Each structure stands twice: as structure tokens, then as C-alpha cells.
Amino acid sequence: MRLYGVETQGIALGEVAKNRKVIHIPFQGEFIRDAADYEIVINETPVIIRTGTPTEGWIALLPGNGTPPNTKYGTAYVLKDYAKDVELIEYGYGVDMGTEQIDNWWQYLVIIREPAIFLVRMAYDTDKKERYYVIFKGKKVHEVYPEELSLVKNALELYDLKDPDKLIKAYKGGDRETLVELNELKKVVSDKVVRVDANMVGVAEEVIGIPLEDPDKLIHTGEGITELSKLIKNEAASQKGEGAIDEIIYGLDFGYNNPTVCLRIGLKDGNIYILDELFKKEGK
What we know:
Elements: E1 2-4, E2 11-13, E3 23-25, E4 27-28, E5 38-42, E6 46-50, E7 58-63, E8 75-79, E9 86-94, E10 105-112, E11 116-121, E12 132-137, E13 140-144, H1 149-155, H2 164-172, E14 179-181, H3 204-208, H4 215-221, H5 235-240, E15 247-253, E16 260-268, E17 271-280
Parallel strand pairs: 1-7, 4-6
Antiparallel strand pairs: 2-3, 5-6, 7-10, 8-11, 8-14, 9-10, 11-12, 12-13, 15-16, 16-17
């Protein structure tokens, strides 16, 4: 993925102070602004890494902070039609020093799948600070101000863009049909299962705390791995039911040259037991 709004290797969302939230996002690998091989790994905290393999999408830092950042009304929205293509990774916030309100300016780290359109309202000491669109389309990012709308609508074939001031006025008046504030999105959390592709093996220990070897090498040598089909089927555990083991999980592999296989697996005291299995060839 590409980066937007990330200018250095270190990212700090928010500020360190009373009634403020700051989140530090570690960065591993050489920082190259135009690279397209960035990924986010979510363990206890998000980490941005370089994989060496370009992928589609963006890792974007969308700020609502202005100059100075501790004034008022700074946040970011996504147009509702595009909210499904945005994942909220983390956020930080500041406060208005006069009112002590903590919801006055926000910074967001998100993952974006194109196309997507955001509306940024920067914090400022007056309400005259221009709002603007951030448009992700065609592997490019376009920052569009109100006076540029007529030109951009035709160039980007986005004919339904409206004056951002009118959209925010409607939102503040209770209209929730067009904009979604980013802090309303569900934050991505770490799962028990983490997929580590071959191009990420080199940083696996630093990111998830588990050292891994090249999977192609393991398959070639066969050292240190065991095929699930060679595990002993535990008939006793299967007959006693789920109460005899700690956890039941299922694994499914749709075969291409080989049969499709589904395994019912039991976990007990750190051991793996195959409780049942199903093999099916095409047309049988």
C-alpha cells in the first residue's frame, strides 16, 4: 500500500497532556515516500512495515488538527457511500484549552481501498478555515478545495460532489445521510489468527513475537513441520465429544489438483488431534 499524510518514520496521533490521547505508531523499514509496499500489522499496537511486495490501497493519516492544533472543530469525515472501503486503525485527540472539551480535533490512521472520498475540517481559531476534500482514485490523491470543484468534477468524473461547507452545516444540523465521522467507524482489532505471507517472514519476530522461517524452505526440507494428515486421529476424544478437549476448530482447503479437505480438529493441553476428516474429489 501507499502512504498519504505520513512524512516521517514516526507517527504520533494526538498529544501528550491531560485529557488528551496520544498513540505512537512504530515504523519498521526504510522510509521511502513513494513506495507502494507498506502494510499494517496489528498485534498489541499497529506497526507499519515494508514487505517488498507492492499492494493496492493506502495507509493514510487524516488530520483534523490545524494551526494551532488545540483550538476548535477539527475532524475528518468519509462520504457515506465510501465508508465500507475504510478501516479505522487508530486515532488520537486533543482539547480546547479554554473549554477542556476533548472532541475538538482528531487525527486518524486508516486503511483505504480506492475509490474513497473524505472531507477534512481543520481546527482553527475561527470558522473561516477552508474545508476540503481528499480524494483517493487511480493510485493518486487529490486535495480539492471548494473553488476547484467545478474543474475536478469533470476531470475525476465525480459529478455529485457538493460544497463542503454545506455538507458540514447539514451534518451539524443532524443530517447523517452523507457524511460519517471517522471516529464512528469500528476500529480494526487484532485477531487470534495472524496470516503471515512469505514476504513478511523476515519481520515476523519483531512484529508478532514469533520467529518464522521461509515456508518454501520448510516444505522442501520437511524439517520441523508435520502434515495434518499424518497426525493420529483421536477416536476416544471424538467419541467423548467436545467436553473431552479444550477447543474445537475446523480447517478447510479447497483443492485444485488435489481433493478438497475439511478437518475437525481438537486442541487439548497444547496437543492437536484430528477428530474427523472429509475428502472430496470433483464429481464424487
